[in-house]
Amino acid sequence: TQLLEQSPQFLSIQEGENLTVYCNSSSVFSSLQWYRQEPGEGPVLLVTVVTGGEVKKLKRLTFQFGDARKDSSLHITAAQPGDTGLYLCAGAGNNFNKFYFGSGTKLNVKP
Amino acid sequence: GAGVSQSPRYKVTKRGQDVALRCDPISGHVSLYWYRQALGQGPEFLTYFNYEAQQDKSGLPNDRFSAERPEGSISTLTIQRTEQRDSAMYRCASSYRTSGLNNEQFFGPGTRLTVL
């Protein structure tokens, strides 16, 4: 069973559209990370959020950590084909060392 | 600089054989993690090391799986008496710090294991 559930599992949109993916859990995490993974490659870290309610922006990507530190969202504005990939969230335990990954959201942005 | 490397990249073995998967972390990285990843899914934690000490092996599926990192650098994940259900991508990651808020993991390309 996954500690972190991501939704939607699959998302196919047109270039220029906005989207939001969600990462939910019944557990509290010390921090939450978002990764993007391209086919044949390992996950690459996008951002780490630590404080409940925290919002971080990375160009067209906006990440939010829930107030209770149990959930997070990733919003992409004006999606581009280069955003295509598998988006993973990962929650860290108390020592920020052991990470629990979500099930992933596979995003396809069509030109 | 060089990233995390893993070898072999692909391994096909027959059921019942033992396999050893190698991970070479980024130089200077003190923590090393092993994950197993099914296609289209997130990585599943197996075990991790700080330096040469195995800190947590709670994710290893059963006692056929073991890992070591004797000199605090290269690590080997060994699967004994492989079974078809062991087929998966095995990924290694390393991080510069042992803990802390900005503990970023850098992932290797993985070893695709197929058990026939």
Brief sketch in words of this structure:
By secondary structure, chain A is mainly β. Chain A has no helices and 11 strands.
Overview features:
heterodimer, A: 111 residues, mainly beta, 6-stranded mixed sheet, 5-stranded antiparallel sheet, 53% strand, globular, B: 116 residues, 7-stranded mixed sheet, 4-stranded antiparallel sheet, 11 strands, 47% strand
* Main β sheet profile of chain A: 6 strands, mixed
Radius of gyration of chain B over all CA atoms, rounded: 13 Å
Please tell me what the overall shape of chain B is. Answer: globular
Quote the average pLDDT of chain B.
Answer: 93
Low-confidence spans of chain A: pLDDT under 50, at least 5 residues?
Answer: none
Number of helices of chain A: 0
Low-confidence stretches of chain B: none
Derived from helix and strand composition plus strand pairing, the structural class of chain B reads mainly beta
Oligomer: heterodimer
Distance between the termini of chain B: 37 Å
| Rg over CA atoms of chain A | 13 Å
**Helix share of residues of chain A?**
under 10%
Helix fraction of chain B by DSSP (H/I, runs of at least 4) = under 10%
Number of helices of chain B: 0
Q: How are helices and strands ordered from N to C of chain B? A: EEEEEEEEEEE
SSE arrangement of chain A, N to C: EEEEEEEEEEE
